[in-house]
Amino acid sequence: MNALLLASLLAASPEPTPITLDQARAQGRQATTALQSAIDVEVAEQDVRVSRSALLPQLSVGASAGKRWIGRSRSFGLIPNPNEDPNVPGDEFIQAPVETKATSTSDYDLNATLRQVIYDRGLWKQLEQSGVLRDAQKSQAQEEADTAELEAVRRFFALFRTQASRQVLEATVKRSEEQLERARSLFQAGRVGKVEEISALVNLGNDRITYTQSMAQLVTDQTSLAVWLTRPGTEPLVAVDPGVLQTEPAPAPSIEEAISVARERRPLLKTLELRVRSAELQRAIARADYIPTLNAQGFYTRGGPDAADVFTEPRLQNNFIASINLNWNVFNGFNTNAQSKRADATIRKAQLTLEQSAREIEGEVRAAHQALEAQIAAARLAAENNDAAVQGLRLAEERFRAGVGSTLQVRDAQLSLTQSELSLLENRIDVEIARYRLLRAMGALGPGETK
Q1: Is 65 among the domain residues?
Q2: Mean pLDDT of the chain
Q3: Is residue 137 part of a domain?
Q4: Which residue range forms the structural domain that includes residue 130?
Q5: What CATH number should be reported for the domain holding residue 165?
Q6: Is the pLDDT of residue 8 over 60?
Q7: What is the pLDDT averaged over residues 304-329?
Q8: What is the pTM of this model?
Q9: Is the pLDDT of residue 451 over 50?
Q10: I want to staple 347 with a disulfide (CB 3.0 to 4.6 A). Which of 200, 208, 279, 287 is the partner?
Q11: How far is Cα of residue 377 from the mean position of the Cα atoms in its chain?
């Protein structure tokens, strides 16, 4: 009855989607956190274009049309002397208050301005700094993608472990069913008491309960992997056997090799090195104020009170101005000196961060390397324990058939075998997770990388 109920529940579930380890790794690098970091690379790329734009020609055009009103006003002006004899020629003028009437004039303007930087060390260094920051963001994006891939690997193996564990539990249920049949046969033959059959029936029920409850963990692991791979959370995934349970774990690389690879390839170290370079360029930008700048400018204007003259008559109202400007900020209140010293402090901080991160990465590699070696040893011990548990169950079943053993002894052997199988499964999968963690610490995780 319970088996039928479980079968009906499984039949009602959507058809599961198989996924391989390689697919999980590739899709993991497209997780949300990795995509967000990739967008930051696009932003940094546009920052480079913004910095470059300041060094390219700047052309602006404009036009205006307006009217000017001037009210009545009184001012002193030169007028002919009214006391002078009009019959006698003369040129005597005197100053007298003059009142002018209100007037209005139209005002039209058409202009174009062209500017070009000839030399500005600060702008060139800003462009170089933008390129360095873009490259740093690319390395940071790779670091985030590696982290996302490792998480996808961990969730894949968590799902595969649950699937394999359910197979172990299912095999335990079958062994309990066989033990119940043996106990009934021996009871009917009068070789054992009824209590042996009852014990076997209870054991079978407990094994079925454990197997049924494992379904909840399976759904949890399916959802966890699907969400991380940006798939619908309702999509049931099935981890395709990567073949690790049928092979011996490969040995770990030497610790010297692992640390050497990490120093050369870890994206985080490249990011921090580039940030040190960016801080050095910031100092160069600050010190650029000590150096003169040279710019060229050209102005073209057309202006006047008549729109037809300004906008439709090309031979009139033309004005051209061209200039080369040299600017040198000789003294700005020690601001440049302060900015330079501030940049020196930023460089020191970036260098300290780089040095500390390098030490931490070496420690991370060492810890991951030791964990991998320990897991490989544990997996070998688990395999030996499993072999012993298989022999123990075989011996207990033979004794039970011979009538000199009990269901309790068989049950103990069954539990030992189940526990040893689960332990072997756990340790063998933990070996693979530890191996990928070491690759992640070394910076050797990513497209095209192999174990």
Answers
A1: no
A2: 89
A3: yes
A4: 2-30+121-290+334-442
A5: 1.20.1600.10
A6: no
A7: 90
A8: 0.83
A9: no
A10: 279
A11: 35
Least trusted range by pLDDT, from 66-80, 345-359, 376-390, 410-424? 66-80
The total number of structural domains that make up the chain = 1
Token digits for 399?
């004794």
Our CA dihedral for 426, 146, 355, 345, rounded to 10 degrees, sits at -140
pLDDT digits (tens, 9 = 90+) for 282-292: 999 999 999 99
The set of long-range contacts for 156-160, using a CB threshold of 8 Å and a minimum separation of 24, is: 156/19, 156/21, 156/24, 156/225, 156/239, 157/239, 157/429, 157/432, 157/433, 158/221, 158/224, 158/225, 159/218, 159/221, 159/222, 159/224, 159/225, 159/237, 159/239, 160/239, 160/241, 160/242, 160/429
The answer to whether residue 99 sits within a structural domain is no
Q: What is the mean pLDDT of residues 169-190?
A: 87
In a domain, 96, yes or no: no
- Three-point CA angle 441, 447, 451, nearest 5°: 55
